[in-house]
Amino acid sequence: MATAPSAKSNGPESTKDSAVTTIPPSIPPPRKVALVTGITGQDGSYLTELLLSKGYDVHGLIRRSSNFNTARLDHLYVDPHISSKARMKLHYADLSDASSLRRWVDSILPDEVYNLAAQSHVAVSFEIPDYTADVVGTGSLRLLEAVRLAPKSIRYYQAGSSEMFGSTPPPQSESTPFHPRSPYAAAKVAAHWYTVNYREAYDLFACNGILFNHESPRRGENFVTRKITRAVGRIKVGLQTKLFLGNLSAARDWGFAGDYVEAMWLMLQQDKPGDYVVATEESHTVEEFLYAAFGYAGLDWKDHVEIDKKYFRPTEVDSLKGDSTKARRELKWKPKVGFQDLVKMMVDHDLELAKKEKVLVDAGYRDSQQQP
Question: pTM of the prediction?
Protein backbone atom coordinates (compact mmCIF):
# COMPACT_ATOMS: atom_id res chain seq x y z
CA MET A 1 0.00 0.00 0.00
CA ALA A 2 1.28 3.46 -0.91
CA THR A 3 1.96 5.81 2.03
CA ALA A 4 1.69 9.64 2.24
CA PRO A 5 4.95 11.58 1.90
CA SER A 6 6.69 12.23 5.20
CA ALA A 7 7.21 15.75 6.55
CA LYS A 8 10.77 15.63 5.22
CA SER A 9 9.74 14.52 1.73
CA ASN A 10 10.85 16.54 -1.30
CA GLY A 11 7.57 15.86 -3.06
CA PRO A 12 5.48 18.55 -4.79
CA GLU A 13 3.36 19.39 -1.76
CA SER A 14 6.31 20.08 0.53
CA THR A 15 7.98 22.20 -2.14
CA LYS A 16 4.84 24.32 -2.44
CA ASP A 17 4.59 24.78 1.33
CA SER A 18 8.24 25.80 1.51
CA ALA A 19 7.75 28.46 -1.19
CA VAL A 20 4.83 29.99 0.69
CA THR A 21 6.75 30.32 3.95
CA THR A 22 9.73 32.05 2.33
CA ILE A 23 7.80 35.00 0.83
CA PRO A 24 9.32 38.15 2.39
CA PRO A 25 7.00 40.52 4.29
CA SER A 26 5.56 43.37 2.23
CA ILE A 27 7.33 46.71 2.49
CA PRO A 28 5.00 49.55 3.55
CA PRO A 29 4.71 52.40 1.06
CA PRO A 30 6.79 55.49 1.82
CA ARG A 31 5.12 58.22 3.79
CA LYS A 32 3.79 61.25 1.97
CA VAL A 33 5.81 64.42 2.54
CA ALA A 34 4.28 67.88 3.01
CA LEU A 35 6.01 71.26 3.09
CA VAL A 36 4.14 73.95 5.03
CA THR A 37 4.92 77.66 5.11
CA GLY A 38 3.42 79.54 8.03
CA ILE A 39 3.62 76.36 10.10
CA THR A 40 3.96 78.29 13.38
CA GLY A 41 0.63 80.06 12.89
CA GLN A 42 -2.86 79.03 13.91
CA ASP A 43 -3.65 77.24 10.65
CA GLY A 44 -0.16 75.78 10.33
CA SER A 45 -0.37 74.07 13.71
CA TYR A 46 -3.80 72.55 13.07
CA LEU A 47 -2.78 71.44 9.57
CA THR A 48 0.39 69.84 10.94
CA GLU A 49 -1.66 67.90 13.48
CA LEU A 50 -3.93 66.67 10.70
CA LEU A 51 -1.09 65.66 8.37
CA LEU A 52 0.80 63.81 11.10
CA SER A 53 -2.39 61.93 12.01
CA LYS A 54 -2.61 60.81 8.38
CA GLY A 55 0.96 59.48 8.37
CA TYR A 56 2.75 62.34 6.62
CA ASP A 57 6.24 63.59 7.26
CA VAL A 58 5.90 67.36 7.67
CA HIS A 59 8.53 70.00 6.96
CA GLY A 60 7.84 73.57 8.03
CA LEU A 61 9.51 76.78 6.90
CA ILE A 62 9.95 79.39 9.63
CA ARG A 63 11.43 82.88 9.75
CA ARG A 64 14.43 83.52 11.94
CA SER A 65 13.52 85.51 15.05
CA SER A 66 15.39 86.49 18.21
CA ASN A 67 12.46 85.01 20.15
CA PHE A 68 11.08 81.51 19.73
CA ASN A 69 7.69 81.64 18.03
CA THR A 70 6.93 77.92 17.93
CA ALA A 71 4.59 77.72 20.95
CA ARG A 72 1.70 76.39 18.84
CA LEU A 73 3.88 73.44 17.81
CA ASP A 74 5.46 72.58 21.16
CA HIS A 75 3.15 69.62 21.73
CA LEU A 76 4.19 68.16 18.35
CA TYR A 77 7.92 68.75 18.53
CA VAL A 78 10.38 65.85 18.77
CA ASP A 79 14.13 66.46 18.71
CA PRO A 80 15.36 65.70 15.16
CA HIS A 81 18.16 63.55 16.61
CA ILE A 82 15.44 61.00 17.40
CA SER A 83 15.03 60.34 13.71
CA SER A 84 12.58 57.48 14.10
CA LYS A 85 10.05 59.68 15.91
CA ALA A 86 10.73 63.18 14.55
CA ARG A 87 8.22 63.35 11.71
CA MET A 88 7.98 67.17 11.86
CA LYS A 89 11.09 69.17 10.98
CA LEU A 90 11.57 72.94 10.84
CA HIS A 91 13.83 74.88 8.48
CA TYR A 92 14.72 78.55 8.20
CA ALA A 93 13.39 80.30 5.09
CA ASP A 94 11.37 83.34 4.10
CA LEU A 95 8.87 84.13 1.37
CA SER A 96 10.92 87.23 0.61
CA ASP A 97 13.96 85.05 -0.19
CA ALA A 98 13.53 83.04 -3.39
CA SER A 99 16.82 81.18 -2.93
CA SER A 100 15.75 79.66 0.39
CA LEU A 101 12.41 78.55 -1.06
CA ARG A 102 14.05 76.92 -4.07
CA ARG A 103 16.68 75.21 -1.92
CA TRP A 104 14.19 73.60 0.46
CA VAL A 105 11.71 72.57 -2.22
CA ASP A 106 14.53 70.90 -4.18
CA SER A 107 16.04 69.16 -1.16
CA ILE A 108 12.81 68.01 0.49
CA LEU A 109 10.93 67.22 -2.76
CA PRO A 110 7.54 67.19 -1.04
CA ASP A 111 4.41 65.63 -2.46
CA GLU A 112 2.34 68.61 -1.31
CA VAL A 113 3.10 72.27 -0.54
CA TYR A 114 0.77 74.36 1.61
CA ASN A 115 1.45 78.09 1.41
CA LEU A 116 -0.07 79.52 4.60
CA ALA A 117 2.57 82.14 5.41
CA ALA A 118 1.55 85.80 5.26
CA GLN A 119 1.48 89.13 6.99
CA SER A 120 -2.14 88.34 7.69
CA HIS A 121 -3.40 91.24 9.81
CA VAL A 122 -5.65 93.48 7.73
CA ALA A 123 -5.24 96.63 9.82
CA VAL A 124 -1.46 96.22 10.01
CA SER A 125 -1.31 95.95 6.22
CA PHE A 126 -2.24 99.64 6.04
CA GLU A 127 0.81 100.39 8.21
CA ILE A 128 3.28 98.21 6.25
CA PRO A 129 1.80 97.92 2.75
CA ASP A 130 5.08 97.33 0.88
CA TYR A 131 6.09 94.44 3.11
CA THR A 132 2.59 92.96 2.96
CA ALA A 133 2.54 93.06 -0.84
CA ASP A 134 6.02 91.53 -1.07
CA VAL A 135 5.40 88.61 1.28
CA VAL A 136 1.73 87.88 0.56
CA GLY A 137 1.67 88.56 -3.17
CA THR A 138 5.16 88.22 -4.62
CA GLY A 139 6.10 85.65 -1.98
CA SER A 140 3.50 83.26 -3.36
CA LEU A 141 4.91 83.79 -6.85
CA ARG A 142 8.41 82.89 -5.62
CA LEU A 143 7.10 79.69 -4.07
CA LEU A 144 5.07 78.77 -7.16
CA GLU A 145 8.18 79.18 -9.28
CA ALA A 146 10.15 76.91 -6.95
CA VAL A 147 7.39 74.29 -7.20
CA ARG A 148 7.27 74.61 -10.99
CA LEU A 149 11.03 74.09 -11.36
CA ALA A 150 11.21 71.14 -8.96
CA PRO A 151 12.33 67.81 -10.53
CA LYS A 152 9.03 66.12 -9.57
CA SER A 153 5.32 66.87 -9.72
CA ILE A 154 4.15 68.67 -6.56
CA ARG A 155 0.61 69.60 -5.54
CA TYR A 156 0.26 73.19 -4.31
CA TYR A 157 -2.25 74.86 -1.99
CA GLN A 158 -2.55 78.65 -1.80
CA ALA A 159 -4.28 80.16 1.23
CA GLY A 160 -6.74 82.76 0.01
CA SER A 161 -9.00 84.98 2.09
CA SER A 162 -12.58 86.17 2.16
CA GLU A 163 -11.12 89.67 2.48
CA MET A 164 -10.51 89.48 -1.28
CA PHE A 165 -14.25 89.99 -1.82
CA GLY A 166 -14.15 93.24 0.13
CA SER A 167 -17.11 95.44 -0.76
CA THR A 168 -18.81 92.86 -2.99
CA PRO A 169 -22.20 92.07 -1.40
CA PRO A 170 -22.75 88.65 0.21
CA PRO A 171 -23.15 85.78 -0.22
CA GLN A 172 -19.76 85.29 -1.87
CA SER A 173 -18.82 82.21 -3.90
CA GLU A 174 -16.02 81.18 -6.28
CA SER A 175 -17.66 83.18 -9.09
CA THR A 176 -18.12 86.39 -7.06
CA PRO A 177 -15.93 89.29 -8.30
CA PHE A 178 -13.13 90.43 -6.01
CA HIS A 179 -13.10 94.02 -4.71
CA PRO A 180 -10.31 94.15 -2.10
CA ARG A 181 -10.39 96.93 0.49
CA SER A 182 -6.92 96.67 2.07
CA PRO A 183 -3.29 96.12 1.00
CA TYR A 184 -3.54 92.63 2.52
CA ALA A 185 -6.62 91.75 0.49
CA ALA A 186 -5.13 93.18 -2.72
CA ALA A 187 -1.98 91.09 -2.19
CA LYS A 188 -4.10 87.98 -1.63
CA VAL A 189 -5.91 88.67 -4.91
CA ALA A 190 -2.52 88.78 -6.66
CA ALA A 191 -1.54 85.46 -5.04
CA HIS A 192 -4.87 83.95 -6.14
CA TRP A 193 -4.36 84.87 -9.78
CA TYR A 194 -0.70 83.83 -9.76
CA THR A 195 -1.91 80.40 -8.66
CA VAL A 196 -4.57 80.26 -11.39
CA ASN A 197 -2.01 81.36 -13.97
CA TYR A 198 0.53 78.69 -13.01
CA ARG A 199 -2.21 76.07 -13.10
CA GLU A 200 -3.22 77.11 -16.62
CA ALA A 201 0.23 77.91 -18.01
CA TYR A 202 2.23 74.99 -16.61
CA ASP A 203 -0.46 72.40 -15.83
CA LEU A 204 0.45 72.66 -12.17
CA PHE A 205 -1.87 70.97 -9.67
CA ALA A 206 -2.54 74.22 -7.80
CA CYS A 207 -5.59 75.06 -5.70
CA ASN A 208 -6.85 78.25 -4.07
CA GLY A 209 -8.70 77.91 -0.80
CA ILE A 210 -10.81 81.03 -0.24
CA LEU A 211 -11.27 80.62 3.49
CA PHE A 212 -13.66 82.82 5.40
CA ASN A 213 -12.73 83.90 8.93
CA HIS A 214 -11.64 80.94 11.03
CA GLU A 215 -10.81 81.23 14.70
CA SER A 216 -9.65 79.12 17.64
CA PRO A 217 -7.91 79.39 21.00
CA ARG A 218 -4.68 79.57 18.96
CA ARG A 219 -5.74 82.74 17.15
CA GLY A 220 -3.33 85.66 17.52
CA GLU A 221 -4.30 87.99 20.37
CA ASN A 222 -4.45 91.08 18.15
CA PHE A 223 -7.30 89.62 16.05
CA VAL A 224 -10.70 90.87 17.19
CA THR A 225 -12.21 87.52 18.23
CA ARG A 226 -9.25 86.55 20.38
CA LYS A 227 -8.90 90.10 21.67
CA ILE A 228 -12.48 89.81 22.93
CA THR A 229 -12.12 86.39 24.56
CA ARG A 230 -8.81 87.33 26.18
CA ALA A 231 -10.48 90.42 27.64
CA VAL A 232 -13.44 88.35 28.89
CA GLY A 233 -11.08 86.09 30.81
CA ARG A 234 -9.06 88.93 32.30
CA ILE A 235 -12.16 90.95 33.24
CA LYS A 236 -13.73 87.89 34.86
CA VAL A 237 -10.74 87.38 37.20
CA GLY A 238 -10.26 91.08 37.91
CA LEU A 239 -7.17 91.83 35.82
CA GLN A 240 -8.90 94.19 33.38
CA THR A 241 -11.97 96.40 33.28
CA LYS A 242 -12.14 97.88 29.76
CA LEU A 243 -11.90 96.62 26.19
CA PHE A 244 -11.35 99.07 23.33
CA LEU A 245 -12.65 98.13 19.87
CA GLY A 246 -13.53 99.69 16.52
CA ASN A 247 -16.39 98.85 14.17
CA LEU A 248 -18.93 96.66 16.01
CA SER A 249 -21.30 96.39 13.05
CA ALA A 250 -18.82 94.57 10.77
CA ALA A 251 -20.26 91.11 9.98
CA ARG A 252 -18.13 88.03 9.38
CA ASP A 253 -18.60 84.34 8.62
CA TRP A 254 -16.69 82.78 11.55
CA GLY A 255 -15.74 79.09 11.70
CA PHE A 256 -13.29 76.87 13.57
CA ALA A 257 -9.76 76.71 12.17
CA GLY A 258 -9.47 73.01 12.99
CA ASP A 259 -12.35 72.30 10.61
CA TYR A 260 -10.96 74.46 7.84
CA VAL A 261 -7.53 72.80 7.55
CA GLU A 262 -9.30 69.56 6.62
CA ALA A 263 -10.72 71.36 3.58
CA MET A 264 -7.19 72.44 2.60
CA TRP A 265 -6.02 68.84 2.65
CA LEU A 266 -9.08 67.58 0.76
CA MET A 267 -8.41 70.02 -2.09
CA LEU A 268 -5.07 68.37 -2.80
CA GLN A 269 -6.59 64.86 -2.76
CA GLN A 270 -8.91 65.53 -5.71
CA ASP A 271 -8.42 64.23 -9.26
CA LYS A 272 -8.36 67.76 -10.67
CA PRO A 273 -7.24 71.07 -9.14
CA GLY A 274 -9.71 73.86 -8.47
CA ASP A 275 -10.62 76.81 -6.29
CA TYR A 276 -12.97 76.49 -3.32
CA VAL A 277 -14.78 78.78 -0.89
CA VAL A 278 -14.70 77.38 2.65
CA ALA A 279 -17.29 78.88 5.01
CA THR A 280 -20.02 78.15 7.55
CA GLU A 281 -22.59 80.13 5.52
CA GLU A 282 -23.59 82.04 8.67
CA SER A 283 -22.69 85.64 9.39
CA HIS A 284 -22.44 87.43 12.75
CA THR A 285 -21.46 90.96 13.71
CA VAL A 286 -18.68 91.86 16.13
CA GLU A 287 -21.43 92.98 18.50
CA GLU A 288 -23.01 89.53 18.35
CA PHE A 289 -19.64 87.97 19.16
CA LEU A 290 -19.33 90.33 22.14
CA TYR A 291 -22.80 89.38 23.37
CA ALA A 292 -22.05 85.66 23.10
CA ALA A 293 -18.59 85.82 24.69
CA PHE A 294 -19.39 88.13 27.60
CA GLY A 295 -22.77 86.49 28.18
CA TYR A 296 -21.21 83.03 28.41
CA ALA A 297 -19.00 84.34 31.23
CA GLY A 298 -21.93 86.00 33.01
CA LEU A 299 -20.89 89.52 32.02
CA ASP A 300 -22.56 92.41 30.16
CA TRP A 301 -20.32 93.62 27.34
CA LYS A 302 -21.82 97.11 27.47
CA ASP A 303 -20.29 97.61 30.92
CA HIS A 304 -16.77 97.08 29.59
CA VAL A 305 -16.48 97.91 25.88
CA GLU A 306 -15.54 101.36 24.58
CA ILE A 307 -15.11 102.51 20.99
CA ASP A 308 -11.71 103.84 19.90
CA LYS A 309 -11.63 105.41 16.44
CA LYS A 310 -8.04 104.35 15.88
CA TYR A 311 -9.30 100.79 15.34
CA PHE A 312 -11.40 101.79 12.34
CA ARG A 313 -9.78 100.98 9.00
CA PRO A 314 -9.37 103.54 6.18
CA THR A 315 -11.68 101.34 4.09
CA GLU A 316 -14.03 98.98 5.91
CA VAL A 317 -15.42 95.63 4.79
CA ASP A 318 -19.03 95.63 5.95
CA SER A 319 -20.25 92.08 5.46
CA LEU A 320 -18.79 88.70 4.50
CA LYS A 321 -20.82 85.50 4.22
CA GLY A 322 -19.61 82.56 2.19
CA ASP A 323 -21.39 80.22 -0.18
CA SER A 324 -19.45 76.95 0.18
CA THR A 325 -21.75 74.83 -2.01
CA LYS A 326 -18.89 73.67 -4.24
CA ALA A 327 -16.70 72.53 -1.33
CA ARG A 328 -19.59 70.68 0.30
CA ARG A 329 -20.47 68.96 -2.97
CA GLU A 330 -17.04 68.09 -4.37
CA LEU A 331 -14.91 67.78 -1.23
CA LYS A 332 -17.71 66.34 0.92
CA TRP A 333 -16.64 68.90 3.53
CA LYS A 334 -18.79 70.70 6.07
CA PRO A 335 -18.00 72.53 9.32
CA LYS A 336 -18.38 70.61 12.57
CA VAL A 337 -18.14 73.46 15.11
CA GLY A 338 -20.92 76.08 15.16
CA PHE A 339 -20.68 79.73 16.17
CA GLN A 340 -21.81 79.34 19.78
CA ASP A 341 -19.54 76.36 20.40
CA LEU A 342 -16.62 78.24 18.88
CA VAL A 343 -17.17 81.19 21.20
CA LYS A 344 -17.45 78.92 24.23
CA MET A 345 -14.28 77.04 23.26
CA MET A 346 -12.30 80.28 23.05
CA VAL A 347 -13.73 81.78 26.25
CA ASP A 348 -13.09 78.58 28.22
CA HIS A 349 -9.47 78.57 27.08
CA ASP A 350 -8.91 82.23 27.86
CA LEU A 351 -10.58 82.00 31.27
CA GLU A 352 -8.03 79.33 32.23
CA LEU A 353 -5.23 81.43 30.79
CA ALA A 354 -6.37 84.46 32.81
CA LYS A 355 -6.45 82.41 36.01
CA LYS A 356 -2.82 81.40 35.46
CA GLU A 357 -1.94 85.02 34.71
CA LYS A 358 -3.58 86.13 37.94
CA VAL A 359 -1.37 83.76 39.93
CA LEU A 360 1.67 85.57 38.53
CA VAL A 361 0.15 88.97 39.28
CA ASP A 362 -0.76 88.01 42.84
CA ALA A 363 2.76 86.69 43.38
CA GLY A 364 4.27 89.96 42.15
CA TYR A 365 5.78 88.57 38.96
CA ARG A 366 3.62 90.65 36.63
CA ASP A 367 2.28 94.20 36.69
CA SER A 368 -1.51 94.20 37.18
CA GLN A 369 -1.79 97.66 35.58
CA GLN A 370 -0.69 96.65 32.09
CA GLN A 371 -4.33 96.70 30.90
CA PRO A 372 -6.97 99.39 31.59
Answer: 0.90
